[in-house]
Amino acid sequence: MSGVGKILQKCMGEMGFNTGGGNINWYPGHMAAATRAINARLKLADLVIELRDSRIPLSSANQDLQPRLSSKRRVIALNKKDLANPNIMHKWVDYFVSCKQDCLPINAHSRTSVQKLLELVELKLKEKIAKEPTLLVMVVGVPNVGKSALINCIHQIASSRFPGNLLIVDL
Length: 171
Hints:
The protein is globular and about 75 Å long. Helix content is 46%, strand content 12%. The protein has a four-stranded parallel beta sheet with strand order 3-2-1-4. The longest helix has 15 residues, at 147-161. The protein is α/β, with parallel strands linked by helices. Helix 4 links the parallel strand 2 and strand 3 (102-105).
């Protein structure tokens, strides 16, 4: 075997390529733990905000959660709308509406954009708010879709509206 072949074989072995064709467990442990925690808390949620990247709204969905989310009140928030093509964005919104799913393009760093999302959430929970003043709204999404930015903006808005009465729990 040539020197290059030995180097390639060594590198491929270190990278963990499975040449035998067996199952590969690529799912990172922290994502598995987060999925278990979400599943445990999902039963308690009154509404779920599913955050997706507006540039890739189907690819940025967590496929493991979709069966459980379909039975919950849910709003799909397409984040990073400022980075997406506006001509295509409205087609995605139309697509989700045709699937009978509430969808709203947002920019998680914009208070006015997040305020519109909160207004939609309040509208969807109007009857429940009248019965129970304390509700649980979950924010879920794959890594890097902007969950932290959205939660931080919601916290800023809620802190100004309800000083001292807000509890945010982070998984």
